[in-house]
Amino acid sequence: MFTPRAGLLPAAVILALGLIACGSDPGPDANPADPVTIDVTVSAAAEIYSIPWLVAQQQGLFEKHGVIVENIVPGKGGSATMRTLLDGNIPIGEVSYPSIVQADAGGSELRIVGGGTQGPYPMNFYALASNSSISSIEDVRKWAYTRPNSASDALTLLLPELAGVDASKIERVASGGIGEGLALLEAGSVDIALIPSIVAEQRPEDFKLIVSSPDYVQRFLQSTITTTKDYAESNPGVVRAINAGYTEAVASIKADPTAAARIYASYTGFDVESAQAVVERASSVDTWGGGFEPAGVDAAQSGVEASGSDRVPDFCTLFDPQFLADGVSREMPGDCDTTAPSDRSRK
Questions:
Q1: How would DSSP label each residue in 215-244?
Q2: What span, in angstroms and rounded, lies between the C-alpha atoms of 212 and 194?
Q3: What Rg value do the Cα atoms of the chain yield, rounded?
Q4: Alpha-carbon torsion angle 86, 87, 91, 96, nearest 10
Q5: Summary count for the chain: helices (H), strands (E)
Q6: How far is CA 62 from CA 6, 240, 343, in A?
Q7: Which of 32, 46, 113, 337 gets the highest tally of CB atoms within 10 A of its CB?
Q8: Signal sequence: where (predicted)?
Q9: Distance (Å, rounded) from C-alpha 290 to C-alpha 330?
Q10: How far is CA 128 from the centre of its chain?
Q11: 8 A C-beta contact, residue 151 and residue 307
Q12: Domains along the sequence of the chain with CATH
């Protein structure tokens, strides 16, 4: 687990964060003078999902709002990360959108309280460079994703349709995780698999890119900042503090990607140069965001429906904008009234 929090911020970052944080008042249950200590869970924590969390943790951006994130607990993706959130005494985390819909589409127990990973990067699928039989999506017959109800699960259903490929010719294989998918690929058990972006940066001679999700979809809600209904109601200040710190971290990454890359490299053990390439690429296409983006939700919901699921979210209950940080998009998916957060209903 990565735990350092202290650190000085460059002047440009301080200015950017000051603009976002102005007027922030998390609430009495998140007191900067006596911070609450919690753990969070993040899907595939060695991937780009963890970067804003790591930056906010090390740079003290959660702590300034009254919360210390002690441990970032790695999830395995999809419903496995959801179980970590619900069963591991962890109050909040970044969880895949499809797993939330499958678990609680009506929002009876869960609340999506903040943005998260809202672009399709780095959902890229690679073949072995030595595999001469695979050169495009039309050649794929065995396609690995991580786990059911993960973002990669949804995309392996959605992308063939968008590419005009006959999906009936593709066998989809649940690998169990990103690392496991890499192992299957290297063993020759699948044609393509999701490769960690930092691994692809470090080993370009070993893999060739076959399907890049950003080629087919511009916005795609991979995962969201999520908690339970009960925790949101009893600890609203903590939830607001997490959102404020996350949003400030996104601004910090954009203002100083080198500092973020050093943090990420230290956490993953990879070199700073590769980490910086990943950070800069992700930040340049606005992969992370603290607010709500209906376009990303629509694309992700299309992936859920491509799986044959009949789970249609009650967007106005499941998504709760009252905890969002200042200055982010509050546009709700669906046709929702955001004027009264405590009593929202469909117009």
A1: GT-S----EEEEEEHHHHHH-HHHHHHHHH
A2: 10
A3: 19
A4: -40
A5: 13, 11
A6: 11, 10, 28
A7: 113
A8: 1-23
A9: 10
A10: 26
A11: no
A12: 36-119+221-318 (3.40.190.10), 124-215 (3.40.190.10)
Largest CA distance in the chain: 61
**If DSSP codes are grouped into helix, strand and coil, which group holds residue 136?**
coil
Kindly report, residue by residue over 38-60, the tens digit of the pLDDT. Answer: 999 998 777 899 999 999 999 99
The string of DSSP letters for 54-111 reads HHHHHTTTTGGGTEEEEEEEEE-SHHHHHHHHHHTT--EEEEEHHHHHHHHTT-SSEE
209: β partners: 126
In this structure, what token pair is assigned to residue 272? 């700073």
Question: What tokens appear for 177 in the block?
Answer: 């995780």
CA distance 295 to 83: 27
Residues 6+ apart with CB under 8 A from 41: 72, 73, 74, 75, 81, 84, 85, 88, 90, 93, 94, 95
pTM, two decimals, is 0.83
pLDDT tens digits along 252-279: 999 999 999 999 999 988 899 999 999 9
| Residue 55 near residue 17 (C-beta atoms within 8 A) | no
